[in-house]
Amino acid sequence: MEKRIMSVCFALLLVTNMLLISTTNVKASSDDLILDGSYLTHDEESIGYDTKITRGDDLLTGYSKCVRLGPGELYAGGTTIASHTVESVQVSVLIERAQEGDTEWTYYDGWYKENLNMDRVASNRSLDVEGGYYYRVRCTHAANSDMSSSFTDGIYIEEP
Questions:
Q1: Residues whose CB falls within 8 Å of the CB of residue 62, separated by 6 or more in sequence, listed in order
Q2: Given a cut of 60, is residue 45 above it in pLDDT?
Q3: Beta strands 38-41; 106-128: pairing state
Q4: Please, what CATH class does the domain formed by 34-157 belong to?
Q5: What is the per-residue pLDDT across 65-111, written as a single tens digit (0 to 9) for each?
Q6: Can you point out the beta strands (E) in the chain?
Q7: What is the C-alpha separation between 83 and 61, in angstroms, rounded?
Q8: pTM beyond 0.70, yes or no
Q9: Domain extents for the chain?
Q10: Is residue 64 within 8 Å of residue 93, measured between CB atoms?
């Protein structure tokens, strides 16, 4: 009989806790601004990792990087790593920018680098840019015919 009373008490306690927990308010969305999958941030740097587009044995990973060096200064680049030495490993780096309220990113600058008979390629640059914009880096990664892409969040660059 005593076990039965304890079981009923625990069941009531469990039901009471479930009711209290389910009444907690939950926010469905964030207040952060998002433009085409990138958060618009005031962070110092952002790194974006690849999402595979094709399946294969050659491409291991790739990433994009965007760093605020100071007012009007941006460091941007990308890296592609193959799982072994391949005939061609490539990275294409695009710099895009937007202002708060824009509906899409616009092209700002870009470049491409290829290494032959290697397992990785990296390319980066420091750029003097116009302040008052969010900048992001978007890369396409390839090892032979395997491909993927990556992009960073947008980081705000102040006026110099």
A1: 49, 50, 78, 79, 80, 81, 91, 139, 141, 148, 149, 150
A2: yes
A3: unpaired
A4: mainly beta
A5: 999 999 999 999 999 999 999 999 999 999 999 998 899 999 999 99
A6: 34-35, 38-41, 45-49, 51-52, 59-70, 73-98, 106-128, 133-143, 146-151, 154-157
A7: 8
A8: yes
A9: 34-157
A10: yes
